[in-house]
Amino acid sequence: DSGVTQTPKHLITATGQRVTLRCSPRSGDLSVYWYQQSLDQGLQFLIHYYNGEERAKGNILERFSAQQFPDLHSELNLSSLELGDSALYFCASSVVHGREQFFGPGTRLTVL
Amino acid sequence: EDQVTQSPEALRLQEGESSSLNCSYTVSGLRGLFWYRQDPGKGPEFLFTLYSAGEEKEKERLKATLTKKESFLHITAPKPEDSATYLCAVKEGAQKLVFGQGTRLTINP
Predict the structure, then answer these.
(1) Which of A21, A43, A97, A108 is the best residue to mutate to test the B interface, defined by the most B CB atoms within 10 Å of its own CB?
(2) Of A7, A64, B59, B99, which sees the most CB atoms within 10 A?
(3) Hey, what's the torsion of the CAs at B91, B97, B100, B103, to 10 degrees?
(4) How distant, in Å, are the alpha carbons of A11, A76, A111 from that of A17?
(5) Cα–Cα distance between A72 and B73 in angstroms, integer?
């Protein structure tokens, strides 16, 4: 158990819908990262937050957004969902930049 | 952009048969190379961080080494429970990890 928690574990929804994925980092970690893992693309970095502020963006679609709250938990919002958004979404946390990232168990999103 | 290539894509070994997984990378200024283990449907589990050429880290049957162009994950006398996908990643900039596609390792009893 990495200490990073994610909810829900599974999410099944329809195209065009909006969902919110939630992540709680390890105690004491200020950095939260979101990654998407699909069969053909592997693990892809989406976005990084540090102590409530956005610090880096990867190949994140405009339909996706995230935020980190004062209690350091983070949410990833996915809207206007398409079939191709079906994937595993992971959250990771680290104590500071540049150190190893610890991953949560992931949320499996299925868009029908 | 930084690139990470892992080989082989898949490897099947008999229990006790030692081998190595390769991770080659192109990066302007390595800020860290990371190895993770991932079981099906689970999150990647951190194994090692390497920062400079010549560095080595060990944990049970696993040993990771680093050169200027590549890293190796050596598996000595593996057991069936070592079966998993092993992921290599490099740090790009200050924040993001760039992952390879992974090596799917199967250890037969």
Answers:
(1) A43
(2) B99
(3) 100
(4) 12, 14, 9
(5) 34
pLDDT in tens for each of the 109 residues of chain B? 679 999 999 999 999 999 999 999 998 778 899 999 999 999 999 999 999 999 999 999 999 999 989 999 999 999 999 999 999 999 877 778 899 999 999 999 9
CA distance B19 to A34: 33
**Mapping DSSP to helix (H, G, I), strand (E, B) and coil, where does residue A69 land?**
coil
Residue B65 one-letter amino acid: T
B53 touches B32 (CB < 8 A)? no
**CA–CA separation, B7 vs A36, rounded Å?**
22
Instruction: Flag if B41 and A58 touch (Cβ within 8 Å).
Output: no
Q: Which of B74, B81, B75 is nearest to B109 (CA)?
A: B81
- Each as own residue / partner, the long-range contacts of residues A68-71 (CB below 8 Å, 24 or more positions apart, any chain) are A68/A32
d(CA B21, nearest CA chain A) in Å: 18
Contact of A63 with A16, CB cutoff 8 Å: no
From chain A, pick out residues whose CB is under 8 angstroms from the CB of B43.
2, 4, 90, 103-106
